[in-house]
């Protein structure tokens, strides 16, 4: 029975790593800041988040939309640990970055979010009372 539990954990970890690798390989501009062979999921999501903050500062809506689609796909395939990293780092930071640039930017960003992440974003914002 223990053997099956180890296989299940290994499988979950492989799925998580595959999702992160997919994200990083589709965004070569962040590969240098997030070496997927040595970083934890939280560190990789943090690198992605930092890159998204930069894109928001640059007002690069085309790249923002492409990256949001990718993180939305990763979120769909993610296990609970990776989803927690995306919720606690990316979604939380996204709200602060969007608010920094005003209501118009926040509305534009919300319009670009995939439905699954928009739901998480709205839940987090309303839960916190922001």
N- to C-terminal distance:
47 Å
Report the count of strand segments: 0
* Unreliable residue stretches: 1-10
- State the secondary-structure class: mainly alpha
Number of helical segments? 6
Query: What is the H/E string?
Result: HHHHHH
The main pleated sheet reads as:
none
What percent strand?
under 5%
Helical content stands at over 70%
Q: What would you report as the Rg, rounded to the nearest angstrom?
A: 15 Å
- Give the overall average pLDDT: 76
Shape by Cα distribution: globular
Describe the structure.
81% of the residues lie in helices and 0% in strands. It starts with a helix and ends with a helix. By secondary structure, it is mainly alpha-helical. The N terminus is likely disordered.
Can you lay out the helices and strands and say which pair or pack?
Layout: H1 2-26, H2 41-58, H3 61-77, H4 80-100, H5 103-112, H6 115-128
The gist of it:
This protein has helices spanning 2-26, 41-58, 61-77, 80-100, 103-112, 115-128.
Name the descriptors:
130 residues, globular, 81% helix, mainly alpha, 6 helices
């Amino acid at each position: 029975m223990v053997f099956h539990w180890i296989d299940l954990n290994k499988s979950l970890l492989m799925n998580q790593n595959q999702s992160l690798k997919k994200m990083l390989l589709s965004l070569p501009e962040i590969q240098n800041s997030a070496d997927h062979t040595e970083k934890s999921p939280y560190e990789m999501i943090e690198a992605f988040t930092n890159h998204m903050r930069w894109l928001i500062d640059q007002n690069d809506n085309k790249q923002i939309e492409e990256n949001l689609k990718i993180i939305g796909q990763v979120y769909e395939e993610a296990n609970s640990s990776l989803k927690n990293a995306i919720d606690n780092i990316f979604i939380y930071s996204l709200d602060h970055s969007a608010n920094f640039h005003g209501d118009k930017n926040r509305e534009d960003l919300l319009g670009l979010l995939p439905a699954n992440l928009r739901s998480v974003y709205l839940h987090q914002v309303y839960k916190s009372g922001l």
